[in-house]
Design a protein that fits this description.
The chain is an alpha/beta fold and 247 residues long. It has two domains: 32-162, Rossmann fold (3-Layer(aba) Sandwich), CATH 3.40.50; 174-241, Orthogonal Bundle (Arc Repressor Mutant, subunit A). Helix content is 45%, strand content 11%. Strand 4, helix 4 (117-125) and strand 5 form a beta-alpha-beta unit. Helix 2 (66-76) runs parallel beside helix 3, helix 7 (186-196) packs across helix 9 and helix 8 (201-208) crosses helix 9.
Length: 247
């Protein structure tokens, strides 16, 4: 972790630092504490300088690894954590999931070079409140973070369109939909979806190309995490998790 005070070069290949206009004297903005997690010290510095130039933002700490990001978020419990996907030791998506398990009130926003849709969806499923591209003007990051702090999501129009397509292709009973924040892994949700569809252990094994013992192990973990004792109760729990407002 570093707390560099030098100003970054005027030109940067991906992050464009621009001074934001001062807020009107009468405008009272909420104080938002932010932790920045990025392995690149220059990227951290540019983001920090851009945020602290705006009223209301306080950069509580900086992290260069996923492990540091988790520890700092659990310690400071800031309003926001801005985190790079490609962190060493613990990747950004895994760090996001761990942060939210230890400090659920924190809002995590991924900030990375453009990623494929699958990576963006994995980040949202891990609990991220948004996914911002490092190719966006740096002055827009503050506005996006304020929106997230206010309870909104920060996603691109393209990702929004993709999410709509996914929703349209989902069965009416909600199979295939997964809550944004869940203790279940992606594989466990795949198994649970098939349990909800009425498939047996053998049928799930064949469909997912897993051994029956592995399916049984996943099922046991699903029941434990959902706090239920049977497949039927797991189906009911999945239905509750997929209710509007929890997805």
């Amino acid at each position: 972790m570093r707390n560099d005070s030098e100003h970054p070069p005027a030109a940067n290949g991906r992050l464009r630092l621009a001074a934001s206009p001062p807020a009107p004297a009468t405008q009272q903005l909420p104080r938002l504490r932010v932790i920045i997690a990025d392995p690149d010290p220059l990227a951290r510095r540019v983001i920090r300088d851009a945020l602290t130039a705006e009223p209301g933002f306080v950069v509580s700490a900086e992290a260069r690894t996923g492990v540091e990001a988790v520890e700092l978020a659990a310690h400071y419990r800031p309003e926001l954590v801005l985190i790079e996907v490609g962190l060493p030791q613990l990747d950004g998506i895994s760090a996001c999931r761990e942060i939210l398990s230890r400090a659920p009130q924190v809002r995590v926003v991924m900030f990375s070079v453009p990623q494929d849709r699958n990576t963006e969806l994995r980040a949202l499923r891990a609990g991220a409140s948004g996914f911002l591209s490092k190719s966006m003007p740096i002055e827009s990051v503050g506005r996006a973070l304020r929106s997230v702090a206010a309870g909104e999501a920060a996603v691109s129009r393209q990702l929004t369109s993709h999410l709509i397509d996914v929703l349209r292709g989902t069965a009416e009973d909600g199979r295939g939909m997964r809550p944004v924040r869940s203790t279940l892994t992606t594989r466990e949700w795949e198994v649970l979806d098939l349990i909800c569809a009425g498939l047996s252990t053998r049928e799930i094994s064949s469909k997912l190309f897993l051994s029956e013992d592995t399916v049984y192990s996943h099922t046991k973990s699903i029941l434990r995490k959902l706090g239920v004792h049977s497949r039927a109760e797991a189906v009911e729990a999945a239905s509750r998790l997929r209710q509007p407002g929890l997805i």
